[in-house]
TrEMBL record:
Full protein name: Thiosulfate sulfurtransferase GlpE
Catalysed reactions listed for this entry: thiosulfate + [thioredoxin]-dithiol = [thioredoxin]-disulfide + hydrogen sulfide + sulfite + 2 H(+); thiosulfate + hydrogen cyanide = thiocyanate + sulfite + 2 H(+)
InterPro entries attached to this UniProt entry: GlpE_sulfurtransferase, Rhodanese-like_dom, Rhodanese-like_dom_sf, Thiosulf_sulfurTrfase
Localization, UniProt: Cytoplasm
Classification lineage: Bacteria, Pseudomonadati, Pseudomonadota, Gammaproteobacteria, Enterobacterales
The encoding gene: glpE
Family matches, as PROSITE patterns: RHODANESE_3
Record organism: Providencia rustigianii DSM 4541
Keyword tags: Cytoplasm, Transferase
Length: 107
C-alpha cells in the first residue's frame, strides 16, 4: 500500500471487534479525555515513539480524528514511514459517536 485508504465507521468497528486492526486517535488530549472510541490508542507527537516501538509495522492501523480530515495526513505519514496497511476513518469521531455511542470511553 503506497497510500492510505478509507473505511466507514461500520467497517472500522468490525475490524476493532474482530481484532484485525488497531485504532489510533489523533485528536487533542482534551477531546480524547472527554471521549474516545473504546480501545483507541491516543497517538500524539509525544506518544509517537512509544507507538512505533511497540507496534508491528505489518499490523493494520486505523486512524481517527474529529471529522475524518486530519486522520488522512496522519494515515499517510504512517504509510510513509513503513506501515503496510493504514486506513483513515470517514467521518471521524463525530460519525463514530453517532453510530456507536456504546463504544465510547471517557477518562
Amino acid at each position: 500500500m503506497d497510500h492510505f485508504e478509507t473505511l466507514t465507521p461500520e467497517q472500522a468497528y468490525q475490524h476493532l471487534v474482530d481484532g484485525s486492526a488497531i485504532l489510533v486517535d489523533v485528536r487533542d488530549p482534551q477531546s480524547f479525555r472527554a471521549g474516545h472510541a473504546t480501545g483507541a490508542y491516543h497517538l500524539t507527537n509525544e506518544t509517537l515513539s512509544q507507538f512505533l516501538e511497540k507496534t508491528d509495522y505489518e499490523q493494520t492501523v486505523m486512524v481517527m480524528c474529529y471529522h475524518g480530515h486530519s486522520s488522512q495526513g496522519a494515515a499517510q505519514y504512517l504509510i510513509n514511514i513503513g506501515f503496510e496497511s493504514v486506513y483513515s476513518i470517514n467521518g471521524g469521531f463525530e460519525a463514530w459517536s453517532r453510530t456507536y455511542p456504546q463504544a465510547i470511553t471517557a477518562l
